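Amino acid transporter transmembrane domain-containing protein, pasting as requested.
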Amino acid sequence: MESNTQPLIPQQNHKKYHTYSFITCFAVVVNYIVGTGVFGLPSAFYSAGVPLSTITIIIFCILSCITAIYVIETLSRSHGYTMAVESGEYKCEMGYEVYDYSSMAQMWGGKPVKWATTITLMCSAYGSLWAYVATCVSTLSTLFWLIYSNEPMKCDVSNRWHFDWKCNVTYFTSIGVYGLVVIPLTFIDLTEQSLLQLVLTVYRFVSFLIMFITCVVQLGKNGPIELKVNTYEDVSFLKEFRWVGFGSMFTHVAFALACQQNLPDALAPLNKKKFSHIATLGSIVLCCFIYIGIALVTSWCFTTSTPSPVTLAWADYNGYEGGWGVGKAKWWALIIKYMILLFPIVNLTNEFPLVATTLSTNMRTLFRNKNSKRTKFITKALAAFPPFILTCAVGSLRVIFDVTGSFSFMLCFSLPCIFHYLSRRKVIAKFNKTKTPFSGPWSRIEVTGAVFIISLLLFITAVVFIIKELVTNFTIA
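Structure tokens follow.
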């Protein structure tokens, strides 16, 4: 037994850990949650209708909170179990070591579970990083052509393989520029970014607030608008259950609330561990309210012409007639316009190093000397560079989400239930202990099984609707 668990966390009793405050931890978790998913939610909101979309977000919020607690409970058991191996005394509490998904899988399920978990996490993390690069490259390219020739959609990424030389130069230059910014950040320790995390969190909430206010003003003054030619205003989605859009809504919400696999990195430096669940659950609930508010007003404002990412709608913002009128943009409208257009870039510039750190931490478990500086450098390089290579080949978010969506679902909903069950069973068998500082009614095996089954049923239902939608679109085409 000792040979399986002791190598996971070497003797580090005298190591000095860098810590951060509750506020910084809250900001880090929020930054993990708010990724590319939020920018596609308004379009999915319109496709599924407000009632179904709102119910879906609430259900996912509850499931995400429960599975996040499962991760926190497993982290507590992992620290207690490791200390018991070293000292012989089991004390269930969170420590400052990073017990990543791969380490927990090895500790509680052995090598088969570890390898399955590591491969799943790597595929999901690479998919997320790939999506971040693709989103930012697309936004940078759009901004360039908007400023240079007022043709923001000149180089449509969905038509990537038919680019002319100008679009190719813009595309690959954007990849290089984004890489020069985020790759160095990946090699900076997370605790050294605490001020940056707080600043970017403030920017994120200010941007959300501006998006919300500008859309409310537009709706109050002139009602919904048409951003594209041959589109029409359709507000029927405000009352309809559009089941055909459930698959799209499911994948967007699941991706938008994903944070469970990043919690070990985010919570390890927290100086007051007893507030781990408050920081995590508070972040998830807050993001859910923001998602509902932003998705509702933006989809209502742009209806059938709601773009993805939705921030592209502000390319036509000028401050007249509610905001999207006729005329040259006012000076303050230009500030709002570019602040929102740059939102995905700033957001994902912050997100990329966080996810890359989680990926590299889990990859280190595959190395014999996982705590050496050389291993840390190699794994961070392996985490940071491949997404840029993949984006050189494919930049379509639809393709990226189709390829990696199922892996993200496993990490956020299935694996936390499995970890909770395995760790609870093993600790009961060895130490006759059941509770952690974060236990509650949700910790019962019956609840864990129910969460696992409900999540699985939702996933199967979403896949059915996605296939149905693809078949329908193919038939119409």
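Note for the archive: The first helix runs from residue 2 to 5.
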